Each structure stands twice: as C-alpha cells, then as structure tokens.
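User: What would this chain look like folded?
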Amino acid sequence: MTTPVAVTTPVIVGNPAYVTTSAVTPVMGTVIVTQAPPALQQEIVLAQPSPQHVWLAGYWTWRDSRYQWMAGRWELPPNSGSVWIAPRWEQQGNAYKFYEGYWN
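Assistant: Here's the prediction, encoded as structure tokens.
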C-alpha cells in the first residue's frame, strides 16, 4: 500500500478507488498518482454568509490510497485584496500531479 507523505521528492501511487468527504485538512508534500482524478462533482452552493466571503469550490485530493472529494465551502480571505488560486491536478506524462490551493 502506498500513501502520500510530506516529502521534497514526488511519491508515486496508483489506485482507482475514491470516496467523498467534507474534511478540510490539506494534503502536504508532493503527490503524484497514476490514476486520473474523477470528474468534478456538482455542488449546491449555500447562501453567502457575508459579502466578504469567497466560495472555494470542491476538488479531488488523494488520501489513504484513493481519491477523496473535498466539499466546497465559503471562506473569508486573509486580506481584502487576496485572490483564491484553486487546487488542481495536472497531467504529466502517464501521471497526475496535485497542486494545493492557496490565497495569493
């Protein structure tokens, strides 16, 4: 069994299984998997808590040797001019590399 860990070099893993979760803990380190991520899920966007809140769309992450859906949520930016850069998967040859989302 291969699982992601906090490292400075990539961890290669592969497994077609996936699950859905609403946990918010980010994946740390570099994660590269050999199985393409599933299609994004449709989400119901709840009412905006305040005009300052920004919607952070859900995304697939890799945990426990499988894909897990991280549900979207409203969040306050750290600063008034901050812009959210969404997490993403990029194909690199026959693998997929995960880039964590962040405030810019």
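Residues 11-103 form one domain. If you want, I can go into more detail on any region.
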